[in-house]
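Subject: sequence -> structure tokens, single chain

Hey, anyone have a minute? Need the predicted structure for the following. Not urgent.
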Amino acid sequence: MARTRAGLRGRGRRPWLWRLLAALLLVALVAGGAGWWKFVHWTPSREAYPVQGIIAGAQDGGTNFRAFRAIGADFAYLEASDGASARDATFDRNFAAAREAGLKIGVIHRFDPCAPAERQSANFVTIVPRDARLLPPAVELDRIASDCPQRVVEAAVESELMTFLNQIEGHVGKPALLKVSPRFEQHYHISRMLERNLWLERDGLQPTYAGRPWTLWTANSLLRTEASEGPIRWVVVQP
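Reply:
Had a minute. Here:
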């Protein structure tokens, strides 16, 4: 009988416990939501990084470059070519609109370790104009040889990348930036091998994974602003 009464008393106390847990969960959700809202509207301070801009491509839909210029973007890096044949469908439109808005323009090529350097550079030069006003081109490095459908020797990736860089730099007349993902850097340690300025990425915190200073930093890949309906990738320049 005593055991039965104890069990009843234990069940009687449980609603209070559940209410407490529910209240704690609610507090955590509210705090998490507030933190998330703050982050997606955050950009690094202008005092620390006077020059800031955006990345734009087909995934962003119709980008209003005038609106981004109005909220403080100084430049736009436009996704242009990808591997040996792919091209961003919005590149020509974005290029004209960004220039009309008064933004400085750079271009991004996504390097494909599965494709020969000559074919990739041919793709790049057919879409990217010779224009002394362009910012240094950026070569996005994320894919690795193990992603290829057919076997690619790991040692060939650096060689092909170097060939590609030499060819596109001859076209644009200036050194390229290496837009290196943490994955690619961890696999190839490319920042130690090639003397090029680096473009790194890390939401909210300065990236350190390359082991040397960066020139550009994608500081918020999910930025929400009044200049666009969806998130935009926000970039800052090292002073």
